[in-house]
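Field reference: sequence -> structure
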Amino acid sequence: MFKNRKRISLQTYWMTRYLLVLLIGLAIVALISAIWIRHTNVSYRMDTMEVLAEQITNQLTDVENPTNDVPNRFIGDPEKFPRQDIKPKVYITNTDGDVLNERAMGPKITKIPKEVLTSSDEKQTLKDLDGISQTYYMVKKKVEMDEKHVGWVVIMEDEKMMTRSNQAYGQLALMIGALALIGLGASYYLTSRLVRPIREVAVAAKQIQEGNYAISLPDHPKEREVYELVTSFTEMANRLEQLEAMRTELLAGVTHELKTPVTAIDGLLQALKDGVVTGEEAREFVQMAMVETKKMKTMVGDLLAFNSFAVNAIPLKFETKEINSYVENTMKQWQTTQEFEQVQITLDEHVEPIHLSIDPVRFQQICTNLWTNAAQAMHEQGHIHIRLQADKEKVRIFVQDEGSGIPKEEQPLIFDRFYRGENKKYAIRGLGLGLPLSKMMAQSMQGDLRLVHSDEQGTCFVIELKRNEA
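Structure field:
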């Protein structure tokens, strides 16, 4: 369904989105800035026109002349007006709006309607002599002599000229363009920095897929998430390399362990067939062949049991047992069937009876496997101490031996299938399924099997079971 979908690089994906967000943000900033520039320019120019109108009104009213001559005076020298970036039209009218004097370029206006003069609106629309309507920003000041209204000073400018800000808009465009370039460079730098370790991890993953575990990744990235990704991936690669080496080694070990009894049985039977041995010696050869057959049967049984538990193919049969007495009975059975005469095993029972719902067969397998491992670790002489502990939620069965301990580098691997430590690999035959199978059986009973500690003074395992009598 998704095989034909075109893929794009992570850097391209994020850069396009960063740029889209950046452009939207800059467009909003540009729009707001343009509105602010327009408003600021109009306000500044209106203030300028206000000052200009005030000065012209003062010039007209400061001269001692008859009142009826005031509107006919010349507007004045424009160089004396405030500095301005526009050239407004200046008109002097009488009280009816008839233009008496002007300084204006463009279309002529002979009369300003009285309703325009008395209006408080800054923007008004007027018609020139050609009948063309145009919108202006206006400032209107009354001319009064001896407290008598004799006319108006009107200063106005075309709306387009008032809102014109070409230079400011150009500067704004340059600023927005510069910010866009800076944002482009920043997004490229940041996405490159983000993508680089991910790309390196992807390349390393392809190397591992091809069976090459000698990967090279950044040692100490500054970013926490990238550091965790690189560190986890490196540890995973090392773990896979160890597991691959272990798998090859253990496959050879399993083959060897199964081949050894077959070879022994073949040799013993061949000797019997050829009549090399007879009588009592022949019976001893048959007994040895049966021992080797039993060992091979045990190893094959472990393989089958492990695979069955791995796929949840073995149903459990739960029964309610009093754990103190059941552990004691299991311990006595183990002592009877084993040949570890120099191994002592003791039990510290819980002070109160504890009834648990367990699968008796699987529980017994876990216990006997731990005790057998403990006896082998002590070279078949020493003391195994079993201690029961309980709280409201769990029951714990501790198994402590006096062996030489498990090396630290091997402790994280002891529950891996087919793993066998260096000290045990050549001394004791087996497939390395005892502890993994025991852990799976404990977990199938809603419990667990854990290594508590291991050092030169001995090793301690604990079986944890959920306290549930139902």
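Note: The two ends are 49 Å apart (CA to CA).
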